[in-house]
Design goal:
The complex is a heterodimer of chains A (about 675) and B (about 290). Helix content of chain A is about 35%, strand content about 20%. Chain A is of the alpha/beta class and about 675 residues long. In chain A, β13 (about 375-380), α14 (about 385-390) and β14 (about 395-400) form a beta-alpha-beta unit. With about 290 residues, chain B is of the alpha/beta class. In chain B, about 35% of the residues lie in helices and about 20% in strands. In chain B, the strands form 2 sheets. In chain B, strands 6-7-8-3-9-10 form a 6-stranded mixed beta sheet, with helices on both faces. Chain B has a 4-stranded antiparallel beta sheet with strand order 2-1-4-5, covered by helices on one side. Chain B is globular, with a radius of gyration of 20 Å. Classes of the chains: A alpha/beta (about 675), B alpha/beta (about 290). Chains A and B meet through β7 of A and α5 and α7 of B.
Amino acid sequence: MTRAAPTPGAVLERPAPAAAPAALVPDTFPRRLVHNAARFGDRVAFREKAFGIWREITWREYLEHARACALGLRALGLRRGDVVALVGDNRPELYYLAMGAQALGAISCGMYQDSLAEQLAELIDFAEARVVFCEDQEQADKVLAMEARLPRVERIIVEDWRGMWRYRHPKLLAFTELERLGREAARADPAAFDALVAEGRADDVAIFCLTSGTTTLPKLAMLSHRNLLSQGENFLAVEPHISPSDEFVSYLPFAWIGEQMISYTLHQLVGFTVNFPEEPHTSQRDFREIAPHFTFAPARIYEGLHSMVTVRMLDAGWLRRTIYAWGMGVGSRLVDLEAAGRPVPWWLRLLRVAAYWLVHRPVLDKLGMTRMRAAWNGGASLGPDYFRFFRALGLNLKQIYGQTEIAGISCVHRDGQVRFWTMGAPIAHTEVRLSEEGEILSRSPSVFLGYFKNPEDTRRALRDGWLHSGDYGTLDPSGDVILFDRMGDVIVTADGTRVAPRVIEDMLKFTPYIQQAMVVGDGRPYLAAILNIDLGNVGKWAEDRGLAYTSYADLSQRPEVLDLLEGLVRETNARLQPEWRLAAFVSLYKEFHPDDDELTRTRKLRRRHILARYRDLVEAIYAGADLFQTVVTVRYEDGRVAELRPVMAIRRVEPPPVAAPPAASPAAPSAGPPRPSP
Amino acid sequence: MPVGLPEPRQPAVTAAPLVEPVLAVEHLSLRFAGVAAIDDLSFVLHTGELLGIIGPNGAGKTSVLNCINGFYRPQTGRILLAAPPAAPGAAPGPLEEITRLAPHLRARRGIARTFQNIALYPGMSVLANILSGRLAHMRASLLAGGLHWGPGERELLAQRARVEEIIDFLELEEHRDHRVADLPYGIQKKVELGRALALEPRVLLLDEPMAGMSADEKADMARYILELREVRGLPMILIEHDMGVVMDLCDRLIAMDYGRQIAEGLPADVQHHPEVLRAYLGEAVAG
């Protein structure tokens, strides 16, 4: 560990690669499509499952549809710089229309199909969309219900008219009708489309992409053709294996930058086939039928696949379970040696061949991943245990790091250098450095043009051409990016030590007995944790030891359970640098719950709410108390109101550390990269 | 928006006008060992009409459907079905008597039904169950069908295409290859409707299609029934106990009690008919 722990104040910077990005010949999406239609002609661009059969759409047909959409939209009065909002499940029509809009010089803006009507209307209005494309009745109903609040929307284009036989709204237009208008216009003026495409500039805004924001204004990142296409080129430079004969399955929301990245950008750059599942419910099955060559998904997808396999194996017979456990053991040993960069003995390689045919291949086959060359995990990072699981199966799972504001990807694991705890290394023509506060900054031709109508957030994110991610992290000796936490969640203790609570919480949660954990200590002399026991596992643990308990609240305060937790906290502390160690913990009498505003619906901590709700508890911890009683009013579903007075023990794990001089406290755990192991 | 643009065009609605009779029941009576299950019942079902039959338990509602599709032979009375239209979309032909026709021949003439208690092939897939409804339309011989080659293969592909349209309509893609016995009750009900539709019926008889369903499933089923009427103009007779559903969906209602028709007319009128109140609520209230 020579230069692993950057001290605050020092700025680590990666040198920019020497070669400048090569200029692209067809430098806008419509020009790329024209180029591809000429290049690929009757090869398959899209495949959509409809009526139980995969139906093919060639590159030539893609262009024809895009042309019809472009001229149809123009006939409706759409002009350069206007916005088309698109909402629906993934279908080729979304892509025809996005491409058609961009051919006009207009901007496509994907919206999440599961948005509530209110949220959808707010975004459509904020984006100043003049035309909204709705895939079906479900989406059209939302837009029509909110129509009074959408004065700018002139047309609502609907692809699937099912159930809408009585709809007579003057703004409604069938997608087929739009294309008919476009084809008529093309017949009248055959050169119109080419003239429009020729007018486009690489620096025109191509898409608005929604990102999650904490401020009141929505954040619509404006990305140009150049942003997206250079991002694709720079990604391909480090992932050169993607070829025109590859298959990809598009089932994640069109509005997500990851989908724009692959099904839109890389698709145009490489020319592989994008497959659309029949229905969201059939996507897993359709995925398996196609067996794609690569995939890009957020962590929850991999977590879901892992639990699916695990649950199936728990149901299997003894023989299968034994062989499976053996096969996974062989795979894990190999993966651990590789990740540590150590040599793999010949006999392990031999066992691995047997395990592949007996275990790994059959499991991968069920997942539709037998042909997969690379599986990227984007968005939130995936736990090391999941990484080990999938890589043990022989799946080339790699982490991706990036933001919507840099067109998706700035870092990716390189083959042969997949270290679970990092986010990978920057892609071509991309620089990553740390700010003095430890914020991850990046710069590349793909850094966005700004947020639409949101100069305040734009100023915060974009300074001197550097994208400020809001992520707190560091660089490991090899130059890989390590992500700790969101900047806003970083805890600064009284002596100035910067702590990433998520790192500690993840280590705590990795044990089967702790379900949730929240580390507190901002502005305090030491760190403490509020823990939720895992009722199932701790309950089982108690039963195995003959401990009786009545409820979650009762179990959570059993001295034996507190001893168990204390042991776990001490173990965690042993793997942390002294400044990051927990001095106290509380086992909460209840679980954090979304209904109490303590968790998001996706089970992320809502730190501010928790701190406000348990303010007195936190005060008691730092007042040095050993017990804390609270009064809780419980309202049952039948309307009864009861008062509970739970008492919680505050356990002291070690004496509060003597205040260390701030300058000597590194921003990273001294034990190297945080790498919890079971 | 520039002036002079064509108005948005929408897919044509094909529901036929509500005039031509497609099915007529005349003075129908059915007795089991002296007990009158149906007593001198007469009604007419028109093109594109959704006719509801309501009544307390044992009123004889299901017996009416059983007479129409040929499971029961009525002692007196006639059942008439319109001949197929001369051309697709044209008015139905003249009424022909089918009172003495065997059930499978009535099915071939276009009468399909679903059952109060699900009557599917539990060990077969959803696809196979719906395909079984296509039997009346299959032409290839058993041997050719078994060979999966030549005319048999073409036949199967054509039939499969029709089945897929139904799977799409009822949103059964997810369950296409699942065994029917493994599916929840609400989905099995949908499969049953799918099999009835596979017959390409000219008259559809629905015997409590929503019994035992959750509110969501009922809403879905109501949507399918409405779409069948509005878009395809399929005439249907619906027996249902959920009054809310009946009142919302049906064009016209017939109320029965002890095998007799006690009221007939628009849903709102039938609902408040004194005889209907008496049948459902007893004497005291109706007075």
